[in-house]
Design goal:
Layout: E1 14-16, H1 27-54, H2 61-90, E2 94-96, H3 97-130, H4 135-138, H5 141-159, H6 161-167, H7 184-187, H8 196-229, H9 234-242, H10 245-267, H11 273-298, H12 300-311
Antiparallel strand pairs: 1-2
Helix pairs in contact: 1-2, 1-11, 2-3, 2-11, 3-5, 3-6, 3-8, 3-10, 10-11, 11-12
């Protein structure tokens, strides 16, 4: 049974997730395109992982980083799938506090891990274009493994305190979340306590991950562009830049909705609820769906293997 809004003196052990406000009667139909997006995301990223794993010629730094990106996107899709489909299929809005805190841990951890992977991929392109003779000696499999572990370690270390910081709060009033999944910036607003420490720490995490990563990615491409412009041949310049197109698309697909959603949550209190919901789906669904498509279309080696796999 779904509990209703609680009075200020009452406590609840569950939160209420939300679908699309005003369109509850159409949730079963809205679930069809959502299911398709999840299916494309899961199959697309699994295909990328399978092709890279089974094709020895793709065991190179660029594709190993791409496999990290695909694995992260797959994790993000699987994190939100149960609660999203639960709401749109059977109207299961209740989520226990511990389950909510666990979900937001994985969502934020994987999101910031994706930011780290995108930075690693930018470094890969920088080395490939600016130091081509030293590419193989700099980005060895050992170095790539250490980069992956460092990225994972940073994400886990920064996000690990959040569930415990939220767990210490009492929650009362109307415990309705705006999305079909849990996010730290939303859950903390439902606490009947001073959330200043959570707000400051949340901002610190964003600045130290997304903020730093985006600046370093920008710096990498500034150096790449300077190197490319120094190449005499126009054909060689275009060839060098073309190797960056897929990564630039992945960066834009990830950072644009993330920044948009963060701005809405922190400063867009007057924004319609529907805008928050749509931005939430764009933030967590579009990058995992589009990244495999972008890399399959723009990267010849991946495209050839995908075509070969499906044609045979």
């Amino acid at each position: 049974m779904t509990p209703g809004p609680l009075g200020n003196g009452s406590m609840s052990s569950t939160f209420l997730l939300s679908g699309i406000p005003g369109l509850e009667h159409m949730h079963i139909w809205i679930s069809l395109p959502l299911c398709l997006l999840y299916l494309v995301s899961i199959l697309g990223n699994c295909t990328i992982l399978f092709i890279i794993k089974t094709e020895p010629s793709l065991h190179e730094p660029m594709y190993l980083f791409l496999s990290m990106l695909a694995l992260t996107d797959l994790g993000l899709s699987l994190c939100t799938l149960p609660t999203v489909l639960g709401i749109f299929w059977v109207g299961a809005r209740d989520i226990d506090h511990d389950a909510c805190f666990t979900q937001l841990f994985f969502i934020h951890c994987l999101s910031f891990l994706e930011s780290s992977v995108l930075l690693s991929m930018a470094f890969d392109r920088f080395v490939a274009i600016c130091c081509p003779l030293h590419y193989a000696s700099i980005l060895t499999h050992t170095v790539i493994g250490r980069i992956g572990l460092a990225s994972l370690g940073r994400s886990v270390a920064l996000i690990f305190p959040l569930p415990f910081m939220l767990k210490r709060f009492p929650y009362c009033g109307s415990l309705v979340l705006s999305h079909s999944y849990c996010l730290h910036q939303e859950v903390m607003k439902l606490a009947c306590a001073d959330i200043k420490a959570n707000s400051i720490y949340g901002m610190f995490v964003i600045v130290s991950t997304v903020g730093v990563d985006s600046l370093l990615i920008l710096l990498s491409y500034t150096l790449i562009l300077r190197t490319v412009l120094s190449i005499a041949s126009r054909a060689e310049r275009l060839k060098a830049l073309n190797t960056c197109v897929s990564h630039i698309c992945a960066v834009l697909l990830f950072y644009t909705p993330m920044i948009g959603l963060s701005v809405i949550h922190r400063f867009g209190k007057q924004a319609p609820h529907l805008v928050q919901v749509v931005m939430g789906f764009v933030y967590l669904l579009i990058p995992p769906v589009m990244n495999p498509i972008v890399y399959s279309v723009k990267t010849k080696q991946i495209r050839d293997r995908v075509t070969h796999a499906f044609c045979n």
